Amino acid sequence: MNSPHDVRRQVLHALRLLGYAGTTPVSERAGILPAEAAEFLREAQAAGQVTRSGFEDDGGWSLTEAGKTLGEKLLAEELESADARPLVESVMAEFEPLNRLVVDACTRWQLTEMGITEPPASLADVLSSLARGSAGWAVLEERLVNRLPRYSGYHERFDTAVDRARTDPAWLTATDRESAHRVWFELHEDLLATLGRSR
């Protein structure tokens, strides 16, 4: 069973990664029951750590600055407890060139879709770049999950999106699904949050 401390860290971190989300997506990302997430979110709202906007089922949660600060504090405690800071810093350094590769590929595709780049990027070239990024991340993820199991799954999610993009290019950068760009953005945010950094 998760301790209240763990739930607080998991929910605040999930909300940072998602940016804005309803209770169910937050609970799924945090790996806890919706009722557990809802209870914490109400408590965090009362403490000024999260805010809710919208109406009823259409509403969503987002972090306040106080919530972001607390989340980073809790992640730092987790990092020290696992003695994982040197590992995450090393992974981050190796992630940077992969990040440039993937972001550049996604940007080239977005500009191609908008018709404002010459020459246009080919789907095959973009997929090739993303596949190289995926292979590079797979090695880093394997190193990370030994100390921080919550990093498990990013490679699988990213690879799934890249594979689906072979027949439906919307899976490259669409915002209405777990596209390759969306998963990679979340991964980058996860590493930054873990190290207490901002974009």
Could you walk me through the main structural features you see in this protein, from its secondary elements to its overall organization?
This protein has 9 helices and 2 strands, in the order H-H-H-E-E-H-H-H-H-H-H. The protein is mostly helical and 199 residues long. A two-stranded antiparallel ribbon has the order 1-2. The mean pLDDT is 93.
Question: Could you write a compact summary of the structure shown?
Answer:
The protein is mainly α and 199 residues long.
C-alpha Rg (nearest Å)? 18 Å
Helical amount among residues, as a percent range?
55-70%
Low-confidence parts lasting 5 or more residues at pLDDT below 50? none
Strand proportion = under 5%
Secondary-structure topology with pairs:
Blueprint lengths: L3 H15 L4 H8 L3 H13 L3 E4 L6 E4 L1 H17 L3 H30 L8 H23 L8 H12 L4 H4 L6 H15 L5
Antiparallel strand pairs: 1-2
Helix pairs in contact: 1-2, 1-4, 1-9, 2-3, 5-6, 5-9, 6-7, 7-9
Q: Which labels suit this protein?
A:
single chain; 199 residues; mainly alpha; two-stranded antiparallel ribbon; 69% helix; 4% strand
